[in-house]
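User: Teach me something about this protein's shape.
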Amino acid sequence: MKKLSVNIGFLVALCVLWSAPVMMTGLSQGFMSTGTVQAADKKKETRRVPAMRERTYKTLSEAQILIDPDSIPLAEGEVKPDVVADPRKAIEILKDLMERRGVNSYELAQIWNTLAFAYYTLEDIPSTLKAYEMVLKQEITEALELSTLRSLFQLYYSKEDYRKAIGYMDRWEELRGSPDAGVTFIRATAYYQLEEFKNALKEALAVEKIVALECEQSKAAAIAAQTAVPECRPMKENWWYIQVVIYNELKDYDNVINVLERLIAVYPKKQYWMHLAGMYSEKGWDDKSLSAYYAAYSQGMLVKESEVVMLAQRLLNAEVPYEAAVVLEKGIKAKLVKKDEKNMKLLGTSYTMSQDMGKAIEAWREAAKISEEGDNYYRLAQALANEDRHKEAIVAYEKALDNDVKNESNAHFWLGISQMQLERWDSASKSFREAAKDKDMEKSAKRYLKYIAGEKYRQEELRKMLEA
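Assistant: First, the predicted structure itself:
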């Protein structure tokens, strides 16, 4: 049997939780007065069943009180019986009642029904199932058959006997005469557990059709009665999500996307935005994927450092660096993102690419404080030089070279440019000569060396002329 996946697990949990109160409703069928049972049954169906005698009803009521003293409704002013719950004693009473002469088929059905309740209270599921199946072998009302079938498919589902659960669901639906969205959903999850994904999908899609049909019928009835048109029952979240899970198993990713887009419109949860973003990426739709991530961020759903940093990186890769910087800056201010070297470098890169050099300088200076790595100083120097702050840039370039910057020739070259801007000709010449040792930089460096030599000669001649 297939183990529950992460996707389907919470759906199944909902099914199991949903089953308990319905089971109690079914069990309560046996504890109305005879007249009440027969009156209720006449409204639902025309089956004729033997009448329940007063002494049988009294014994059933006695057993019911022993099983659950709080289950019997009290009339106004009636005192609650002082009884300690004793389901095992109730079982003995019921078995004795079963052996009495003259017990008719309908009474026998109610005895088995009450026994099922007792066994269920004792968590004896095999005996509970056997008792319910015995109920179905008697002459019973349609209401009791419906509640018994429902209890059976819920119990078999909880035992993970999905095949039997489906069989009882089919019988329940056939007797009811119309499908039920909730039961159809559970049948879809049962087929999923059996790895019969096409059958599961058929049931999951049927849920949506049932909801739509109910909506049309309620509107038509309201129009015919000239009353206010009621709001239609919406598709429940898990009714939609199971389609996503099944389409994913069938590798029908276009429909996974289609359902997620509809689901998010009504239930805009983080897991759906993230799933949709991932599916867009699978299809190569990077812009849509980024939009989905950003939508989740805009709704305050990205609460982990890794998520915020990932979004900033994706924005940067999509060539929207300013938005990347804003996302990262907000995360740092909110103390969601750590102010470490890696994140400060990303922030510095984002501001540099967005040409906000003032903030880029702050970020690179912070990165250099955290880690005196040569490249951090190099990027700081470039940002400073871009703002014509060459005196500061020279200091940063020199620190980059002192701290094993990765590309020394580039650092020497741009150091020479900043020195040249301040007319530090000798220092600039020295820097360009160092840069020229790299074949890739040699041509550019020599061109600047030639320029410096010419500029020094021009300035010397100008000085001589002024002195003369």
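Now, about its shape. Residues 1-45 have pLDDT under 50 and may be disordered. Residues 252-299 form one domain. If you'd like, I can walk through any region in more detail.
User: That's plenty for now, thanks!
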